[in-house]
Write a structure and sequence with these properties.
alpha/beta, globular, binds D-serine, 2 domains, Aspartate Aminotransferase, domain 2, four-stranded antiparallel β-sheet
Length: 423
């Protein structure tokens, strides 16, 4: 018989650390654009006995016996993902967004091929060609960025670079970009130069699922995503594609870049796709965008410049130099974390400071929206953040605003006080 004692009894030290993290998540306001709070049912699926089962291969084509139930679960996840996002094909096995991108690239490209993507320092992701990542090592990435004036993508520049470099793939979809992306213009450019069009929708997939953002699936050949951001599911990756790339994508995930699928995560993905197809999820994802717009507007009203003039999705960047030329992203993010608001420093376009220091902060609203905050709280939060940063050397003001931050966090806890952080 398996050991059925609870973790509190088996490993009090670790169990205490998990509880400590619950307390941290309850007491801070979280604005990291890629994070969210999972539900109890998501923890149940993710921590289930499905973890025990090996199932290398795909439903009805396994290398292990005993996969009857696992097949049903994976098929459920695939069907739900396809229906939710209007996709012809779905692979639900990638362990993460980076794994999804690696498999997607390897499915249709050879090492050394040219890819046109946005560089990390302008809003792209590590896997979009960073020299310290596999992508920049294996492929010849050519970077497009944003326009210096508008801080938005200049589609004419993308077209010009595509014609000049004739990439085999064009990547759109970013980690730090707050505007709409013209999916059909990218499609046209990809067709002009004969490139595969890949959208990395890791950040916006939840908004797309909730119809709060235009869906790239009809336009792109391949769409990669993660399930743990605005989608509110378990940690993991996802690849959607046109049917003609289905075989190549599946082979590139298993056996090329991964071994056994993590079945407990696949079950949790099925749960997540099911929940995201409910009407309440539409309300939730639209509220994320509304909250982001109001938060960005509140900061702008307080004199903190929002990059590209605002947001159309769940996140935005701010330029700290607009309130204090000396203030860095590093100092601001550490200061805010110590005073109740957790977020991350981020390079802004054409940032003169290093990626470790930066001139910017990135903020996103999926977590605060999950906690139940609405526009009213965003106005207050925006004001508190800017006041805290402006008056950071005045202890009286810092105390006053920190208290208000903690009151706000206490009024919208993501988990009950007695929750131990696991099922
Ligand atoms: N680390 C994630 C983010 O914060 O955007 C992307 O992988």
């Amino acid at each position: 018989m398996s050991d059925m004692r609870p973790i509190e009894e088996v490993d009090p030290q670790l169990s205490g650390l998990i509880k400590k993290e619950v307390d941290r998540q309850r007491s801070q306001i979280h604005l990291i654009a890629s994070e969210n709070y999972i539900s109890y049912s998501m923890m149940q699926a993710s921590g289930s006995v499905l973890s025990n089962k090996y199932s290398e291969g795909y439903p009805e084509r396994r290398y292990y016996e005993g996969c009857q139930v696992i097949d049903e679960i994976e098929n459920l996840a695939i069907d739900r993902a396809k229906r939710l996002l209007s996709a012809e094909h779905a692979n639900v096995q990638p362990h993460s967004g980076s794994q999804a991108n690696m498999a997607a690239y390897m499915a249709v490209l050879e090492p050394g091929d040219t890819i046109l993507g946005m560089s990390l320092d302008q809003g792209g992701h590590l896997t979009h060609g960073s020299p310290v990542n596999f992508s920049g090592n294996l492929f010849n990435f050519v970077a497009y960025g944003v326009d210096k004036e508008t801080e938005q993508i200049n589609i004419d520049e993308v077209r010009q670079l595509a014609n000049q470099h004739r990439p085999k793939m064009i990547v759109a979809g970013y980690s730090a970009y707050s505007q709409f992306i013209d999916w059909s213009a990218f499609r046209e450019i990809a067709d002009e130069v004969g490139a595969v069009f890949l959208v990395d929708a890791a950040h916006i997939i939840g908004l797309i699922a909730g119809s709060a953002h235009p869906n790239p699936v009809p336009h792109a050949d391949i769409v990669t995503a993660t399930t743990h951001k605005a989608l509110r599911g378990p940690r993991g990756g996802l690849i959607l594609s046109k049917e003609k790339f289905a075989k190549a994508i599946d082979k590139a995930v298993f056996p090329f870049s991964q071994g056994g699928a993590i079945n407990s995560q696949i079950a949790a993905k099925a749960l997540c796709f099911g929940q995201a197809s409910q009407a309440e999820f539409k309300t939730y994802s639209n509220q994320i965008v509304r909250n982001a717009k109001v938060l960005a507007g509140a900061m702008d009203d307080e004199g903190l410049r929002v990059i590209s003039g605002g947001t159309e999705n769940h996140m935005f960047l701010v330029d700290l130099r607009s309130i204090d030329t000396e203030l860095t992203g590093k100092e601001a993010s550490q200061f805010l974390d110590a005073h109740g608001v957790t977020l991350n420093r981020n390079s802004i376009p054409f940032d003169p400071r290093s990626p470790f220091i930066t001139s910017g902060l990135r903020m996103g609203t999926p977590s605060v929206t999950s906690a139940g905050m609405m526009q009213e709280q965003m106005v207050l939060l925006g004001k508190l953040i800017v006041e805290l940063l402006r008056k950071r050397i005045d202890p009286y003001s810092v105390n006053l605003y920190t208290e208000q931050v903690h009151e706000l966090a206490d009024a919208f806890p993501p988990y009950p006080a007695a929750f131990a952080g696991h099922v």
